[in-house]
Amino acid sequence: MSYRGHNFNNNNNNHHHPQAINRSSSTLDVINSFIPSSNPIIKKFESFTDKFDNIFDNLSLINSLKPFIPTIGRFLIVATFIEDSFRIMSQWREQVYYLSTFRHLYEWIVKIFLILNIIGMLAGSTLIILRKLPIPSSITLSSIVLLQGLLYGLFFDAPFLLRNISVIGGLLLALSDSLIIDKRSLSMPGLPMIESNDYNKKYFLLIGRIMLIVLFITFTITLNFTFLNLLLILIGFLSCFSIVIGYKTKFFASILILLLTIHNCLTNHYWSYSYKDSRRDYLRYEFFQTLSIVGGLLLIANTGAGELSIDEKKKKF
């Protein structure tokens, strides 16, 4: 986000929107028709993913962590904002110098901007984690992303733009997570659901899913085209597409979580560089931004894709 050294280049409401619902449903129906459960190959694959979900859900470690997964996911989503706020404080002089000298801003404006950034990111992140005031805090953090891109001159930088679209997608997922109630309160344990009287929640989930997987486009741009990387790209794109349409969401989200976590630790290992090395700062930025995407995927794996998904369509038939 900010400067990082000289090398950092509802059923009650549904009658108000019948056309939108019909368009979304018809699109999903068309896609669903290409995934017939009666097909032997599809049937075997769905049976395999169902077994995977059952085994995964019954792991003792997962069961013990399950109550905390939404909080962990929301924490990871805002991790990049927390890291950014602490880095601004630790590099205050460099930030002020860069914006006032190279971006030609008045120093007092720069200082006010940075102070508001720190307060906004820490307050917004804390509220997201605690599920308090989700809409104002999500708007605050999204606005900070856009303002930083504008003031630091990175708004039209493709990698920056794609990564931050994914981060905002994660914020939308965190927002939808805050609007989700658990079926355990309705004596249906372990099955998260979306409150039927709020029309907008399913669209937050859909838009969040689409924006979140934009990260993988950035991820593939940086890869050399070896056979192993090509295999990784194909698996990744298949997983991304499945998450967007909401097909076997938990399975494919788990695959992306694994791929991104391994890639993040192997590529963005900022801790192996000295504090004076400029690469450390940039890699730390990359590391925490990827963590935000992993957090969004964690929420998807935990809550499912929502009503606008192939998974939900298949449950009805």
Automatic annotation (TrEMBL):
InterPro entries: Surf4
TM region(s), chain numbering: 108-130, 137-155, 203-221, 227-244, 251-271, 291-310
GO-annotated cellular components: membrane
Cross-referenced PROSITE patterns: SURF4 (PS01339)
Main location: membrane
Keyword Transmembrane included in the entry's annotation: yes
Keywords: Membrane, Transmembrane, Transmembrane helix
Family to which the UniProt record says this protein belongs: Belongs to the SURF4 family.
Descriptive protein name: Erv29 protein
The species this protein was found in: Pichia kluyveri (Yeast)
High-level lineage: Eukaryota, Fungi, Dikarya, Ascomycota, Saccharomycotina
